[in-house]
Design goal:
single chain, mainly alpha, 2 domains, 9 helices, elongated
Amino acid sequence: MMDEMAKELPSVKEVLIDERDRYLATSIFLSPGEKKLAVIGAGHQTGIIKTIKAIEEGSIGTDLSDISTAPKGGKSGKIISWGFPILIVGFLLYGFFNLGQSEGIKMFGYWLAVNMSFTAIGAILALAHPLNILVSILAAPLTSLHPGIGVGMVSGLMELRSENQRSGTLNNWEMMQPPSRGGIATEYYTPFLCSSTQA
């Protein structure tokens, strides 16, 4: 599978596999102690062993600064992310000014209906709180106009708040303690994560 990825998507393999292998191998190599245990995925085993051998031989160093920082984003990403909302508003304004007020209102209604109905379906399928379903429906048209905010973020935070008020789960939970089996994982994170997937 790794060989197929290397042939078809070499740049993806470099980021997802090779750089991770190098990072993990270097971390293992630099960790203290003579005997070390590392639990890794099978897909990384060959690359990590090869990298550790290369570090021991001195053919590569242990400096990870070139892969430890994220590259700065370009302007094209911002232009594209704002282009879609501007396009939506442009179509709606075109409907109002060029096709008449009634046609513009009809276009606006279609846009609201599509946004709100799919959000409602997603919130219901995620078993969200009824108030959260309503908030999600009302937030959908607004969040679709902003590239940085998804309706799933709004509904996820709303579900987080309503779940915390219902069960007091987070108020009584110490953040450093791992969740007990079947406790906070099912009571708290599951509805939050499910509703966040709408984004």
